[in-house]
């Protein structure tokens, strides 16, 4: 329904899970900020963080108090990538196993777990604005390429680090980075060499859409953008994200068919009628109910 009176809101988070490696706050109504919160380990990804990222974004996906998300990192760097101490623990477990099939099963299980963690951002219907500063290494590139909008600070640098530790990236970079920047040549150069890409190049190639002088200015702008998105119809915004993601790996016609199926329901929503009436009458901005 249309807004008829000024309302005062208390920006409090719903009862999400408690996390050890993430910090979740509500800077604006319907806006959640998720921070990687292992500053003492440069926000390196250990097993707990992998699990908690998936859990957090799966919960936010169905949280009616959340319509948009800002993802950032605390401390000196956005993330240093995979926590090598955690990998050493995995190596210890493997050393205690002699059978190759059982070793392969262990690898398959944890790679799939980590893949699902990153994919949770893509499957979350709420738009995600990721804000990076300083180092964005390895798993960090996997993470940001699954988000919707990418901002960075001037001191940011990006590195697909996996070849330097004797492995191929396996949780999303090789699939999503080519779609994020649109240059197979540049993607392959980055992935084959593990060289650093600085913020200027990241903006030029389209990996990020804006570069900021400092982290505070970046977060402030991201929250403003998230607030703008949160004031739109959640029916419209979430359908838009679903169709954009779907259309990335489907034909144009398949994407058209999917949005037609979605909109034959959504065009009957109160959101559509309220927005049309407000636009035609030049009335007050409509306020959309929870979804």
From TrEMBL:
Isomerization of 3-trans,5-cis-dienoyl-CoA to 2-trans,4-trans-dienoyl-CoA. It comes from the Eukaryota. Keywords: Acetylation, Fatty acid metabolism, Isomerase, Lipid metabolism, Peroxisome. This is Delta(3,5)-Delta(2,4)-dienoyl-CoA isomerase, mitochondrial. It catalyses: (3E,5Z,8Z,11Z,14Z)-eicosapentaenoyl-CoA = (2E,4E,8Z,11Z,14Z)-eicosapentaenoyl-CoA; (3E,5Z)-octadienoyl-CoA = (2E,4E)-octadienoyl-CoA. Pathway: Lipid metabolism; fatty acid beta-oxidation. It is found in: Peroxisome. Its main location: other. Belongs to the enoyl-CoA hydratase/isomerase family. GO terms for cellular component: mitochondrion; peroxisome. GO terms for biological process: fatty acid beta-oxidation. One of its GO terms (molecular function) is delta(3,5)-delta(2,4)-dienoyl-CoA isomerase activity. Pfam families: ECH_1. SUPFAM superfamilies: ClpP/crotonase. The keyword Lipid metabolism applies.
